[in-house]
Amino acid sequence: MGVLARQAGLVFQDPESQFCTLTVDDEIAFGLENLQTPPDEMENVIDRALAVVRLSGFRGRPLAHLSGGEKQRVALAAVLAMGPRLLVLDEPSANLDPAATAELFEILRGLAADRRHTIVIIEHKLDEVIEWVDSVLVLDGEGGLLYRGDPRGAFYDRRADLAAAGVWRPQTAELVASLREAGWQVPGAR
User: Fold this and answer.
1) Which of 70, 63, 27 is nearest to 46 (CA)?
2) Are 135 and 121 in contact (CB under 8 A)?
3) What's the predicted TM-score (pTM) here?
4) For residue 3, what pLDDT is reported?
5) Superfamily grouping for domain 2-129
């Protein structure tokens, strides 16, 4: 487990499905214990992981008393604590309200900007992520590749192809395309 856990970390859409313990500290320590992290190092690693996800004051809290957004950030902290280079997030905002979604995506945007992690995010709330992702992979219903590349290329240049395949597109891209089709001059690369 050690080699893989240090290379890739997975955050599910339902954080409770990946929790193994009852408190914030224990949840983050669980992976560290499995990696045989020395106990004297764990406290600092837990504190750093909680700081990254903006939950510094949450040590000792029962997971059952946290909001959905807080639980999702604890799940992310537990993964980050193990030090993976690759973070895979499967619909991390699926069960979150708009405020919790915005906070989670702000944290992820910061992680993406620092370039210490490769982040793969499977997400339907594209309007919230389109400005900070640098590559898009669009699959069809059978898992075939429809597009791989720049987000703007996917949602502006290949808009018709994606629509024909039934792929949902960001509302902002649809609005810009509609305005341009109506003759409005909308600034931008496409």
Assistant:
1) 27
2) no
3) 0.84
4) 67
5) P-loop containing nucleotide triphosphate hydrolases (3.40.50.300)
